[in-house]
Amino acid sequence: MGGVGEPGGEPGPRQGPAQLGAPLPTFRWEQIRSHNLPGDKWLVIERRVYDISRWAQRHPGGSRLIGHHGAEDATDAFHAFHQNLNFVRKFLQPLLIGELAPEEPSQDGLQNAQLVKDFRALRRAAEDMKLFEAKPAFFALLLGHILVMEVLAWLFIYLFGPGWVPSTLAALILAISQAQSWCLQHDLGHTSVFRKSWWNHMAQQFVMGQLKGFSAHWWNFRHFQHHAKPNIFHKDPDVTVAPIFLLGESSVEYGRKKRRYLPYNHQHLYFFLIGPPLLTLVNFEVENLAYMLVCMQWTDLLWAASFYSRFFLSYVPFYGLTGALLLFVAVRVLESHWFVWITQMNHIPKEIGHEKHRDWASSQLAATCNVEPSLFIDWFSGHLNFQIEHQCQHMLSPPPSLFPTMPRHNYHRVAPLVKALCAKHGLSYEVKPFLTALVDIIGSLKKSGDVWLDAYLHQ
């Protein structure tokens, strides 16, 4: 174990907490890298080394989220995901085991120190421009139009009866309402709406539970992993989709290992059958319910039950139980199409692979692109067409702050600053037309399938 002045010492199997007031042992990155196992995990925050091996299971954000930063510098992620840093540091103190040796860089691996420095300067500029201040009227209007659509769909059936035309219109309106609810709960999950995080969490439970029938905690569990490690296999659940689909580097791996669970060279075709139609209807429903039961999220379960009770009590009198269930399935399938195309148009065509251990800024920018804005596209996509700015908002969030993430109505204002910074560092700031972005999903799936086939046949 490296002690004071002994950064080259061999690490032991487990470190005890550093004694208060005693000199801290020092470690080199080569020592820290070996502590990235399920029962043996260290990480670095602000040049201090912490042993989170046992505590990770008690991490409020889940052991998986914090574990993804094992043996890495997690300083920027620590700032991005915590609002009250002084409060959180109290929990870190008992886990402190040492610090980086003075000659060691603050970050390990492929890093761009100047880029990180410039992003932090941009964060301060965004704060000076008051870009972290939310407009209550904007989000009130979003919630209002969701509720209006819920009532309007029911009124169509009430006034015109459960025929094909009013039923189709009602299903479309409900699907739009569900899609916009995804966007609103996403804002709340990022604590972008209210000054106090507790208000955001309560409002998210209402929107996610009562308006959608899902668990807010389940969504945050998935989504925070995505933002921590975007497009990284086994760390970002949004791209860990093998063996159903192969993306990026997994295509080569499966081909070389002669794995053929499905005809991956045709995955761009069967994507239409099992991707957009079934994600929220099957995968999300099952995963969400399992999460609530296994993790004993009883409050979320009650909120979800209130959604199903309201939905079926509203429509069973018109359709009967079977008809109401068919209406629910139709809404979920339409909603699922929206969810898949909108959320994946920024990610699937980009770099997808294993951990590269790059700095926070580079890893976020390599994984996404933007879609050309317009009033309709901004609304339709929930401002996820500004995906670069959305990914960067974690880097830009000023800790500690009452506005931990930037409200989406300010993305267009920070976009020129982010674009200029990308140009300065030679980073790609890609902006696509909307239809091109959608077509690129299919093109990327076909390309990955062809790569798999080539490796499969010729390895």
Structure characterization notes:
The protein has 459 residues and is mainly α. Helices cover 56% and strands 5% of the residues. It is built from 18 helices and seven strands. It has helices spanning 29-32, 63-67, 75-81, 85-92, 113-128, 136-160, 164-189, 197-210, 216-228, 249-256, 267-274, 279-294, 298-344, 360-365, 375-380, 387-396, 411-424, 434-458, and strands at residues 26-27, 36-37, 40-45, 48-51, 96-100, 370-371, 431-432. A five-stranded mixed β-sheet has the order 1-5-4-3-2. α7 (164-189) runs antiparallel to α8 (197-210) and α16 (387-396) crosses α17. The longest helix is centred in the C-terminal third of the chain and has 47 residues, at 298-344. The model is unreliable at 1-13 and 396-404 (pLDDT under 50).
Question: Which helices and strands appear, and what pairs or packs with what?
Answer:
Blueprint: E1 26-27, H1 29-32, E2 36-37, E3 40-45, E4 48-51, H2 63-67, H3 75-81, H4 85-92, E5 96-100, H5 113-128, H6 136-160, H7 164-189, H8 197-210, H9 216-228, H10 249-256, H11 267-274, H12 279-294, H13 298-344, H14 360-365, E6 370-371, H15 375-380, H16 387-396, H17 411-424, E7 431-432, H18 434-458
Parallel strand pairs: 1-5, 6-7
Antiparallel strand pairs: 2-3, 3-4, 4-5
Helix pairs in contact: 3-16, 5-17, 6-7, 7-8, 7-13, 8-13, 10-18, 11-18, 12-13, 16-17
